Amino acid sequence: MEPLKLFMFLLGCKPPGRHTEQHDIFFTIGISLAAVKQDIIDFWPEAKGKIHIDAWRMVDRVGEYQLKVVPAAEKLDDQKNKLFFLNLGGYRKGEFDELHYKLLIVADSLGTASKTAKETAFYKHTGFEGAVSHIDDKYGIDVDDVFEIADVLPSGVKSKYRLQLEVGADGPADEMHLGYLPLSRL
Fold this sequence. Notes:
alpha+beta; DUF1543 domain-containing protein; four-stranded antiparallel sheet; 40% strand; globular; DUF1543
């Protein structure tokens, strides 16, 4: 049997009554894209199945950590670190948009994860006076969303699996798959 993987998706759709495409981030666990298709549909019921994938990755590595999916019943080694998702938002003069930078960070706390996010080039170089942040007015960046991945997995997935982080990630970085992918092609 193929090993279970944590999937990270950038989903898109144009819900009824909206003028532009909307996006959301979704995490789930499975063995393949096809195997998690129903999880995606269930996540965004207002889309009535008219969802597409704009980006996805199987999360194997985050920084120096290897990520493994284990059964919920399996005892984990004492893990002081957790996997966090951060969605940074910022602005550029003359652009009618809020830019976003999505990242995964392994840290022992939300505070440490936020501190690490503030070291990114995006955080340091996006924003200007008048479009300032509620976290750090100097840079004009805000953290729109931040959460621990284990907390936002679908309830059925959370009851079956847990994420285990181990120091010593080997191999290449996770491959980012970008571009329009309708669910009908899964």
